[in-house]
Amino acid sequence: MAGFTHIRHVEDARQAARRRLPRGLFEYIDRGAEDEVSIAGNRAKLDAIELAPSVLIDVTRRGAAAEIFGVGQPSPLIIAPTAVAGLVWHDGEIALARAAARSGIPFCVSTQSITSIERIAAESGARLWFQLYVWKNRERTLALIDRAAKAGAEALVLTVDTAVGPTREYNLRNGFGIPLKASWRAGIDVVRHPRWAVGVMLRALTTSGVPTYAHYPDEFRTRLGRAALSTEVDLAPDVTWNDVRLLRERWKGKLILKGILTVADAKTALSHGVDGIVVSNHGARNLDCAPGPTDMLPAIVAAVGDRMEILADSGVRRGADIARFIALGAKGVMIGRATLYGVAIGGADGAGHVLDILHQQLSATMGLLGANRLGDIRLA
Asked: The domain containing residue 143 runs over which residues?
């Protein structure tokens, strides 16, 4: 894409997003939790994985096509659910979904999306999954997943690694949080980023008003600058395997648990009729002392990989990282921050450019490995 010729890899997009977004918002999407040990660990552990090249192989017709839950797609990627993408770019969730549709991959809509799944479905043409945080009021939670099913979501992705809110001191220091709070620091931050202020916030104010969480019940939906009107839609701290059983009974599509990091939990998920899991430490945004997905993926794949789909995420910055997760046994790879950086700098085109970069890098990695298909990628 001509407008993004200066963006040659994900780090370029990250730095461009840093310049465009207010500091508080950028740090919210970019950083980790507590001392951010895990965010550095995810990167170091991926970098340490070596892949085995085979030489003198014709790779003219290589391809990264994948089949996930029986559906073929051009690459093993899925755009992960990310909260408040609509603050990063006007109608950011729709932009991400459009980029996914152009690339032939699914987009996972977040419970905490600013744009409703109905609008995203109508305006993007994307294959949609729906990410779920269980609310304290279970009946309202079930009504929400019924809504997602009616909108055409193929899969329900239950996030299981966020029983309580994580510790992120930097958001306290930079003044960013949900609900949004007015402050001199935040005001100066916005003034210093006029393109975002005009292109995102002012545009939202003049079209649809102050952003809200679009999936909250109408009577409880508040502007992001106000506290919730009811605890009914607070995230439930008492989610258990009984909730998984309830969701399995209600949801007719594919059911995925995101945030599994032990063999025992993977086996329990299988016993509850779950179709797939995402081996993930939430991009190092929650528990700073959690292991990285690369640590746990091989054992989980060995235990249940022949009976359910295993996906992975956290830390992907290059096509080689996708290849590494595939070599460890993942069938698909979720990406979150990378496409958020892209959408921040150019909407659907920016996110699409980042996806193109990752696809090109994965293809080059496969060519240098002598791998004509994903199944040919091997650990050294």
From this structure: 2-50+58-370
